[in-house]
Design goal:
With 558 residues, the chain is an alpha/beta fold. It is 24% helix and 15% strand. It is built from 15 helices and 20 strands. An eight-stranded parallel sheet has the order 11-10-9-3-2-1-13-12. A hairpin with a 4-residue loop joins strand 7 and strand 8. It is globular and about 80 Å long. Bound molecules: 1-deoxynojirimycin (NOJ). 1-deoxynojirimycin binds next to loops.
Length: 558
């Protein structure tokens, strides 16, 4: 299958293309490395482990690090409930530690992307503490306050409309002191801010400028497409009464994706663009890929969730890739298989295969990494995936993810937030204290130190892949075309740039079998395989072993 690439070219002629050619690595700061023995990861711990990421002889060589929120927070939603945007939570360190981190990353040729949570604050943020007191005063309109729609027969006030919270229940909470409801798309302790208030806007922009002055290289925008709601806040149409999550019972016509959001984003982007070399990535909140594409601009990437939703079959990945290529056209997508909100991809794939042995886990981790790092788009790796980290199981009574506990359907994100396994030392070298979440399964062997010493490890495969990608214009920025190699369980696609062509083939099943290579001007050679291969030479056919992923090339590496 060849994708039609006739759409007009978007102007991407910008001097600094790291956001497009590079690889981003997401750190969940509580779980990366603890320097002070309190069981929780911190900035000093991250700085101590930067060699793993960039600038050292054996580093992964990532171009940027995205830090999930590091701001002061009551931690009801893993830090996505911010009570002060301008500094660092003491559990992670100080602003001085943050400045050291930025400086150390820059010295290593890497960058820092901060998570900006601007749809809502924590209810403990001083803006809300004052706003809830009275309908007058400087912070009165910083949040979305409304009078009740009426009073029910037995007394309680009725919410202004039918909107629901993502975490379940009405999106409106009654504030008796002010005598009004406020809107919360997430927890009641996460009130939505009012972006139609000029004062709120200016307060947010001055916070953004402040972080740019600290030298950050960009931002990840949390649920940015929910920033603006329809001005009159009409009720949403009810469309699917049987949907398991209340959120999906409505069409979200009025509580996100409003037309004037483009204007708001333009204001934000002008501030960010004022500093050369910066870039952002927007987290699309429960909208379709077409919406993601519509918000895209050069230097301003948007996540879509089509690949993350693919299951472990070649057919599912083929469909996802075709959907993405058709939707994104000549715009530049992102590629992510995991993040802090979903079970890790290797755990998901192993569950669907019904197999959990180490060998299959390693093979699937390598095959998935090969896809992730050779598709068209900027890859976003999630900490730990480079060692094939798996989910932990946390029983409900021990859950730390307090937001997920409120979901009508149990959805524990602790599973994908386990401490990073650095070595076979006590607590996998993550902390000298009691880790805030249990260590991942198999951490005594599945850790950075052990895998660094083994040529056949998942980590070694990631390092080789990242190296190959760095040296290959076709893999970094080439066109993509799906191809048929005569086996439904094998995913195959070509990447092309100039006279360089790469062919990626990945077997999704347990069989060993031959595939037919597409005709090429010069003989294909193996540039990299997830399995040992005696020779790089191949003919017109190639035998792929169970879960084997191979990158072939011509002109690349001679
Ligand atoms: C998106 C974040 O990724 C998620 O972790 C959080 O719960 C919601 N935004 C609400 O802040």
């Amino acid at each position: 299958m060849t994708i039609d690439r006739s759409a007009a070219r978007t102007d991407l002629d910008v001097a600094d293309r790291w956001w497009r050619d590079g690889v981003v690595y997401q750190v969940y700061p509580r779980s990366f490395a603890d320097s002070n023995g309190d069981g929780v990861g911190d900035l000093a711990g991250l700085i101590e482990h930067l060699d793993h990421l960039a600038g050292g002889p054996d580093s992964l060589g990532v171009d940027a690090i995205w830090l999930s929120p590091i701001y002061p927070s009551p931690m009801l939603d893993g830090g996505y409930d911010v009570s002060d945007y301008t500094t660092v939570d003491s559990v992670f360190g100080t602003l001085a530690d943050f400045d050291r981190l930025v400086e150390a990353c820059h010295r290593r040729g890497s960058r820092v992307i901060l998570d900006l949570v601007m749809n809502h604050t924590s209810s403990q943020h001083p803006w809300f503490v004052q706003s809830r007191q009275s309908a007058s005063g400087p912070f009165a309109d910083f949040y979305l306050w409304r009078d009740p729609a009426g009073w029910s027969a037995d007394g309680p006030p009725e919410p202004p409309n039918n909107w629901v919270s993502w975490f379940g229940g009405s999106a409106w909470e009654w504030e008796p002191v002010r005598g009004q409801f406020y809107l919360h798309t997430f927890l009641p302790e996460q009130p939505d801010v009012n972006w139609r208030s000029p004062a709120l806007r200016q307060a947010m922009w001055s916070m953004v400028r402040g972080w740019l002055e600290h030298g950050v290289d960009g931002f990840r925008l949390d649920v940015f497409n929910a920033f603006l709601k329809a001005a009159e806040l009409p009720s949403n149409p009810e469309i699917a009464p049987a949907a398991a999550l209340p959120w999906y019972r409505q069409e979200h016509r009025y509580d996100k994706d409003q037309p004037d959001l483009h204007e708001l984003l333009a204001e934000f982007r002008a501030i960010v663009d004022g500093r050369p070399g910066t870039a952002t990535v927007g987290e699309l909140f429960t909208s379709a890929i077409e919406a993601a594409v519509g918000y895209w601009a050069p230097r301003h990437l948007i996540f879509d969730w089509v690949l993350l939703d693919a299951t472990w079959t070649a057919a599912s990945f083929r469909t996802a890739i075709a959907t993405r290529e058709a939707a994104w056209g000549d715009r530049w997508p992102t590629v992510a298989l995991s993040n802090h909100d979903h079970p890790r991809h290797v755990s998901r794939y192993l569950d669907s295969l019904g197999e959990h042995d180490e060998g299959t886990a390693d093979a699937v981790a390598k095959a998935a990494a090969t896809i992730e790092l050779t598709l068209r788009g900027t890859p976003f790796l999630y900490y730990g995936e480079e060692i094939g980290a798996l989910d932990i199981t946390v029983p409900r009574e021990l859950a730390r993810d307090r937001a997920a506990l409120r979901m009508p359907e149990w959805w524990n994100r602790d599973g994908c937030r386990a401490p990073m396994a650095w070595s076979a030392a006590v607590n996998a070298g993550f902390t000298s204290g009691e880790p805030w979440l249990p260590l991942p399964p198999g951490a005594r062997t599945r850790n950075v130190e052990r895998e660094a010493a083994s040529e056949g490890s998942v980590l070694a495969h990631y390092r080789r892949l990242l190296g190959l990608r760095r040296g290959s214009p076709a893999l970094r920025s080439g066109d993509l075309a799906l191809v048929d190699v005569g086996d439904p369980d094998v995913l195959a696609y070509l990447r092309r740039a100039g006279d360089e062509t790469a062919l990626v083939v990945v077997r999704f099943d347990h069989r060993t079998g031959e595939i037919e290579l597409p005709p090429a001007a010069a003989p294909w050679r193996v540039a990299l395989s997830s399995h040992d291969r005696a020779s790089p030479s191949v003919g017109s056919r190639l035998t792929l072993r169970p879960f084997e992923a191979v990158v072939l090339a011509h002109t690349m590496h001679g």
